[in-house]
Amino acid sequence: MADPGNYTEVGAVIRVHVKGIAYDMTGNPIILLTDQEEERVLPIWVGLLEAHSIAVALGQVTVPRPLTHDLFKSACEAMGARISQVVITDLKDSTFYAEVHLALPEHGLVLDARPSDAVALALRASAPVYVTDKLTEHMLLIKDLFDEETRAELEKMFDVAREYKKSLH
């Protein structure tokens, strides 16, 4: 599998973290991807079912039976494949594009995917998520989005989520 720093098909990439799911004023879910410094965020609007699957992977929801993303990950593992990384590659006509990179014993495989599915798989596989450099221009500065009080509240919320996630391991 290619090293993300040398990724040639889509150019240079930066690693991002899945901070969580937010909702816009109309109730539509948004995946929040932040840079390493947590200064910028890339919001990606997703459907309700996709948001649910991501929330499950973030440890916010318990389900009695495996979801489709769990099944896909299990099938990959049964065939000797590992989800090695996810790359959010492009934005065209308000639609984001992504790739799921699989590491197989003999070679690598890249699958076209929706970002919501790619992120749901990456979270389940503990695989890194990257964004191409060209998409960084669509990232928003977090400090410009919220006032100081709201940012402090969000940081408290993120701290609680981090502690909860640690308790699961």
Task: Summarize this structure briefly.
The protein has 169 residues and is an alpha+beta fold. It has 5 helices and 8 strands, in the order βββααβββαββαα. It has helices at 48-57, 68-78, 115-125, 142-145, 148-168, and strands at residues 13-23, 29-35, 40-45, 82-92, 95-103, 108-113, 129-132, 140-141.
Structure report:
This protein has 169 residues and is α+β, with helices and mostly antiparallel strands. The chain has 5 helices and 8 strands, in the order βββααβββαββαα. It has helices spanning 48-57, 68-78, 115-125, 142-145, 148-168; strands spanning 13-23, 29-35, 40-45, 82-92, 95-103, 108-113, 129-132, 140-141. An 8-stranded mixed sheet has the order 6-5-4-7-1-2-3-8. β2 (29-35) and β3 (40-45) form a beta hairpin. α1 (48-57) packs parallel to α3 (115-125) and α2 crosses α3 (115-125). It is globular, with a radius of gyration of 16 Å.
Q: What secondary-structure arrangement, pairings included, does this model have?
A:
Blueprint: E1 13-23, E2 29-35, E3 40-45, H1 48-57, H2 68-78, E4 82-92, E5 95-103, E6 108-113, H3 115-125, E7 129-132, E8 140-141, H4 142-145, H5 148-168
Parallel strand pairs: 4-7
Antiparallel strand pairs: 1-2, 1-7, 2-3, 3-8, 4-5, 5-6
